[in-house]
Amino acid sequence: MPMNFDFSEESRREIWSFLHQQLEAYYAHTADRPVAPPLEPAAIRNYLHTSFQQALPAEQALRHVLDGLDRYLVHTPHPNYYGLFNPRAAFPGILADTITATYNPQMAAWSHAPFAVEVENLLVQTFGTRFGWQKESCDGVFTSGGAEANLTAVQTALNHVFPHYASKGIRGAEGQPVLYCSAESHHSLLKAARVSGLGLEGVRALPVNERLELMPEQVEAQLEQDLQQGKRPFMLAATMGTTGAGAFDPLGRLAALAKKWGLWLHADAAYGGALALSPQHQYLLQDLHLADSITFDAHKWMSLPMGTSMYLTRHPRILDASFRTTADYMPKEASQLDITDPFTHSIQWSRRFNGLKVYLALLMLGWEGYREVIEQQIRVGQCLKDELQKSGWLLYNDTPLPIACFGKPHFAQNEGAALALSQQLIQSGQAWISVYRIGGINSLRACITNYATTEAHVRETVALLNSLV
């Protein structure tokens, strides 16, 4: 008789009980662990089970996985993780992922998951209007991450500017299509250029000013030069809160430039877009409504599990023009209804119900909960900057976001000083920070990504840094 893939009801109850105890212990006591593990590839590979001939008892299998994660993982939910935009997952998001895995909705066809699809449609409109667009013009799709959202932006820009791109590809363009961004923009744009057939020669990653912002005059000068060489400018990508230093490109001036030259204007607001949830700080996004499309990652400042991202646009027909296809085997029960099947509207076909993480978090925490946590993290970030400056550290970036790029005077003469210090800190197991290069200097970079990080945590971390210098 075949194995029961459902397990018995009694077994499931026991397994759930065991797993709940283990996960609750981790979630409640993450701060008791070293932030980062020793990097030992051989030890990790030797730890793995390499034979699957014999099934393990459920508890043994779960212990193996949980112990492996506990020992060999950078614990991004730790309050002393100051690295990339990988926050602690808010509990409603964890619940949503569990619900989604259990129901396992098929998101390709509206008729297979009408509740799930309509939840995501609602969220697209909700965030589109939060970002300043009219409700009736909002369209978009949930994506696996900011990289897919940025790839979607490149695809929609190409289809908007080159009407025959969907059928002829890059060959249908008269001249090399070119997109413009800053040297501080996310490198997923370079991947998108490769995937879309532009190649790296189709990307102009332009120098920034002393505030690390893209300069419109620099864009226009390069654009005019490209036109003289027979190239076809088609897209301008601005960043609202760069990954490295938290810089905001001047979106209003870039929008005027995009309009003048007929470019698609994309705003990568993967991180900074959450400022729309804080009345105190939403002025930083005052021109966001001028963008043709927006990338927003809810798995960053909304503290939701990976990957919960959105591509949004104010051009309601462009996703259809870019991705519509037909397939005889797809469900047709809703073909006479006023609906859109998601598979005709996005890069992905079958995909996860990522929108539930956002929906359930908003139901349980509300806009007010997010306002409070965003403003709290900005306050903690300011505390970090203040404590660093009190201790004689130099700040190399100027941003209202809780991101600090900092160093000591000797960093300018010693290329390896920042990396050596960050490695010392990481190896201590007490905190995790990264290294970022600004103005030719390797700086230390710390970002408040965790709603559980307090001013006491950052003071302890600065004291630790001081002791290592």
Beta-strand residue percentage: 5-15%
Radius of gyration: 24 Å
The helix count comes to 14
Main β sheet profile: 7 strands, mixed
State the helical fraction: 40-55%
- Number of distinct beta strands: 11
What sequence of helices (H) and strands (E) makes up the elements? HHHHHEHHEHEHEHEEEHHEEHEEH
- How far apart lie the N and C ends? 65 Å
Task: Report the principal-axis shape.
Answer: globular
By CATH's scheme, which homologous superfamily of the largest domain applies? Type I PLP-dependent aspartate aminotransferase-like (Major domain)
Question: What structural class results from the helix and strand content?
Answer: alpha/beta
Count of spatially separate domains: 3
Poorly predicted sequence stretches spanning 5 or more consecutive residues:
none
CATH topology of the largest domain: Aspartate Aminotransferase, domain 2
Strand order of the largest sheet: 1-7-6-5-4-2-3
What would CATH call the class of the largest domain?
Answer: Alpha Beta
Mean pLDDT: 93
CATH second-level architecture of the largest domain: 3-Layer(aba) Sandwich
Protein name: L-2,4-diaminobutyrate decarboxylase
Family: Belongs to the group II decarboxylase family.
EC number: 4.1.1.86
Cofactor: pyridoxal 5'-phosphate
Summary of the model, kept short:
One of its GO terms (biological process) is carboxylic acid metabolic process. The protein is of the alpha/beta class and 469 residues long.
What attributes does this structure have?
469 residues; alpha/beta; Aspartate Aminotransferase, domain 2; Aspartate Aminotransferase, domain 1; 3 domains; 7-stranded mixed sheet; 11 strands; 41% helix; 12% strand
